[in-house]
Design brief:
With about 425 residues, the chain is of the alpha/beta class. It has twelve helices and 20 strands. It has helices spanning about 15-30, 45-55, 65-85, 120-125, 155-165, 200-205, 215-225, 280-290, 320-330, 330-335, 360-370, 395-405, and strands at about 5-10, 35-40, 90-95, 100-105, 115, 130-135, 135-140, 145-150, 170-175, 195, 225-230, 240, 260, 265-275, 295-300, 310-315, 340, 345-350, 380, 385-390.
Length: about 425
């Protein structure tokens, strides 16, 4: 039996009973002969509560101290879980991200992992112990400050450790039974996917699917680490995410893998931009210098009478104010007339590797949206994805309409969200 890395989300360890249930599952894996490394998130809504507390104390907390505060949640979880495992008669050692050797860059609140040196983890395993690691955190390479990895950071921690330790699999335990063809909270008839390739999962994650985050899947694909998404609330087989089917599993690649949606983005329109070479470069260099990530971009045809055009792009709502401020400061350098900000939008994406060889998919997608009375504001495509921006109020209806139109509905309501979050 080889080494297994397991990750448990906040809903799985939300209370004492949840922690004890997780401890039993970990001990079972140990009894089956595996070496076990566990990555754990903060309990329930602990991180959100810490963020609210910080905002009450300071409207703009310093990044270093903010990270120091947020990492407390995972440290509580790891210590309690180690205690629960020891109570079951097995030895466990807990480690912070820095103790586990998770080395990051120096960007506070959304650091990126640049190396993992898991010497202490290997020693713990060699001594026959279960290693419990606090997810979502690391230590900066230059200043040795505590850092956090941003949304989905515990998933990324787990995959990074699995790669560094040459694990057989990284098991992501959550409160759903796997990856579904749509969010089961929106589409109760969503089907569980038994196996999905990294590329399709990357697109779903980037398009708003909350089961796995984009950076986690990207890391797993780079190091070819199979991910097994399972529920910590049931014993059902989940979803394998890998380059090829696992073991004897024979799965034909579906034309459509699923429908994802995202209501966490906003849209900025830069109005009255001179239509000449270099203007778009100045706009997006300004956005880049502000450390803001953007998603979809659309430029209108310029008006012949004025020689001006509009450029629209989407970005996370949380970074909207930062982007607006950066553009306003450089208004003279860019030469635009005004800015429009809209945070009442939603994105719907259809994902599937089979789309590139099936020309009717695009027409069927837009027909489904039209029949549902959904108006489209922006469109973006890749070889295996079509995304559109609509009004936020239309998102749920649009997802259900597209899901049904492509025959993805299950015959029964099989999708269950045990913890209520979908993570």
């Amino acid at each position: 039996m080889g080494l297994v890395v397991q990750k448990y989300g906040g809903s799985s360890v939300a209370d004492a009973e949840g922690i004890k249930r997780v401890a039993k599952r970990i001990v079972e894996a140990k009894k089956n002969g595996h070496q076990v490394v566990v990555v754990v998130s903060a309990m329930g809504d602990t991180t959100d509560e810490l963020i609210d507390l910080a905002e009450q104390v300071s409207p703009m907390p310093a990044g270093r101290e903010f990270d120091m505060l947020l990492t407390a949640g995972e440290r509580i979880s790891m210590a309690l879980l180690a205690m629960a495992i020891k109570n079951l008669g097995h030895e466990a050692q807990s480690f912070t991200g820095s103790q586990a050797g998770v080395i990051t860059d120096s960007v506070h609140n959304k650091a990126r992992i640049i190396d993992v040196t898991p010497g202490r983890i290997r020693t713990a395993l060699d001594e026959g112990n279960i290693a419990i690691v606090a997810g979502f955190q690391g230590v900066s390479q230059d200043k040795k400050d505590i850092t956090t990895l941003g949304r989905g950071g515990s998933d990324t921690t787990a995959v990074a450790l699995a790669a560094a330790l040459d694990a057989e699999v990284c098991e992501i335990y959550t409160d759903v039974d796997g990856v579904f063809t749509a969010d089961p909270r929106v589409v109760p008839k969503a089907k569980k996917i038994d196996w999905i390739v990294f590329e399709d999962m990357l697109e779903l994650a980037a398009s708003g699917s909350k089961v796995l985050l984009h950076r986690c899947v990207e890391y797993a694909r780079r190091y070819n680490i199979p991910i097994h998404v399972r529920s910590s609330f049931s014993g059902l087989q989940g979803t394998w995410v890998s380059s090829e089917p696992i073991g004897d599993q024979k799965v034909e690649q579906a034309i459509i893998s699923g429908v994802a949606h995202d209501t966490s983005e906003a849209k900025i329109t830069v109005v009255g931009v001179p239509d000449k070479p270099g203007e778009a470069a100045v706009i997006f260099r300004t956005i880049s210098d502000a450390q803001v990530n953007i998603d979809m971009i659309v430029q209108n045809v310029s008006a012949a009478s004025t020689g001006l055009t509009d450029i629209s792009f989407t970005l996370p709502k949380a970074e909207g104010r930062k982007a607006i401020d950066a553009l306003e400061k450089n208004k003279d350098g860019i030469g635009f007339e005004s800015l429009r900000y809209d945070d009442q939008i939603g994105k719907i994406s259809l994902v599937g590797a089979g789309m590139k060889t099936n020309p009717g998919v695009t027409a069927d997608f837009f027909t489904a949206l039209s029949d549902a009375g959904v108006n489209i504001e922006l469109i973006s495509t890749s070889e295996i994805r079509i995304s559109v921006v609509t009004r936020a109020d239309d998102v749920n209806e649009a997802v259900r309409a597209v899901h049904t139109a492509f025959g993805l509905d299950s015959d029964s309501d099989e999708a269950v969200v045990y913890g209520g979050t979908g993570r």
